[in-house]
Write the structure tokens for this entry.
Amino acid sequence: MTQNGFVLVASVSIFNDDKVLIIKENKPTAIDKWNFPSGHVENGEDILYSAQREVKEETGFDVKLIGTTGVYNFVSSTNHQVILFHFVGEVTGGYLNLEEDGISDSKWIKVNELVTFENKDLREPSVMMQIINNLLQEKIHPISVYNEQLI
């Protein structure tokens, strides 16, 4: 969602045991770039719901959000002002299904192996490295810092 020039994005690190899922995007603005499942928050959508929806759309997995590494504010490679909410989740159902347009691959990888990726292979590498460093340092805040939208 773009509001007043800002793009709101929800992103999720999905864990299974000691590994995290990353996906390879093949979109016009991110060709062959590794990223965590993520996408735009739709108008009127609760941020927590948005994160779970994006994971389902991009991976086929249902997830429970268990924490957050924080909120990241940056200017993207496409020159948009982005506010990215990054969550940590665990799989609760579904199965890996990469049929969404723009997702060409995925892999389960240990978090410390993510630092071996070259910047050119990551989508928004400075932000990805901040998230990865927070994951490595276990700087994960409780999900309760977010209030669910009242209907």
